[in-house]
Amino acid sequence: MLQSHQDASRTAGMTLEHHIPGRKIVQSTGDSWKEAEAQIFSRPFHEEEVLVPAVADPLLVMILSGEAKIEERKLTGEWLQSDGKMGSFFLTQAEAPYLMRWKAKHDAPFEVLHLYLGLPLVNRAARSLGLMPSRCRMRDVSGARDPFISGVLYGLANEIRSETPDNSLFINGILESLTIHLLRCYADTAVTPNDKTARLPVWKLRKALSHMQANLAHPFDLDSLADLCGMSRFHFSRSFRTTMGQSPSRWFIRCRIEQAALLLRQTHLSVLEISLAVGYENPSHFSQVFRKMTGINPRDYRKL
């Protein structure tokens, strides 16, 4: 008998549940979750070298509580570190097992949400965007921040923790909106056999993205990124664009604006202070870039 995709998704969740140490707090259940699965875990504060198996479905993990230094590596690669803070997320559609380790602070529980997106949901969302599902694959993202994703995942976390009956219309609407956002922003959507040779390897991509995220307050430096990956400026830029769908400089600006949006929502820093924190000495220029990227100026965004 063929296994239903809902059962396959459950199997993926159970596989990681049995491999990664921690206590499951709550699990999505019911007909509202036919095309996805959500779980909330309390993780130990320190763990050395966990083998994470490959999972066919796109997996989105967000830190709900706590803060940790998280390191990942391919079985034969080097460790790459990410700062996991409340609201930051990790995205993978792993083709092969990889290793993970972490060390969390003890001042708050270290809790994470796992969300598995079923392929029927992803493929339907891809077709709605005019994309060919067979050419869509989520990229590996580690320790990133995205106000839309964090808002959606906090909403889903509250929903599965609630004692009220699930609302299928609400859950399905959220899942479809989230999947479309992921395909637009975090997926390779036009991969062909010839493209694959020009794509950045995962470890180089993570290095470049981590470096950009750690240097948002500094000017964009293409030479440093290319050197970090052991590539020429030309080949790095071409491979980055093929992999991410955007130039390195465009991605860097986007990271700056996403960080600024987070600071506007979660701190009382002034617009000038936030502008300086993400590398814009001129607050007027910062406001222009922010409005161009989000459709709204920083002060109005803070009021939302």
What order do the helices and strands come in, and which of them pair?
Elements: H1 5-19, E1 23-27, E2 36-42, E3 46-52, E4 59-65, E5 68-74, E6 80-84, E7 89-92, E8 98-104, E9 111-117, H2 119-128, E10 137-138, E11 141-144, H3 147-161, H4 168-186, E12 187-188, H5 193-196, H6 202-214, H7 222-228, H8 233-244, H9 248-266, H10 271-277, H11 283-294, H12 298-303
Antiparallel strand pairs: 1-2, 2-9, 3-8, 4-7, 4-9, 5-6, 5-8, 7-11, 10-12
Helix pairs in contact: 2-4, 3-4, 7-8, 9-11
Low-confidence stretches: 1-9, 193-197
Element pattern in H and E: HEEEEEEEEEHEEHHEHHHHHHHH
Radius of gyration, in angstroms, nearest whole number: 19 Å
Terminal-residue CA separation: 50 Å
Number of helices: 12
Trace the largest sheet across and list its strands: 1-2-9-4-7-11
What fraction of residues sit in β-strands? 15-25%
Assign an overall shape.
Answer: globular
Q: How much is the average pLDDT?
A: 86
Structural class: alpha+beta
Largest sheet: 6 strands, antiparallel
Helix content: 40-55%
Q: What's the total count of β strands?
A: 12
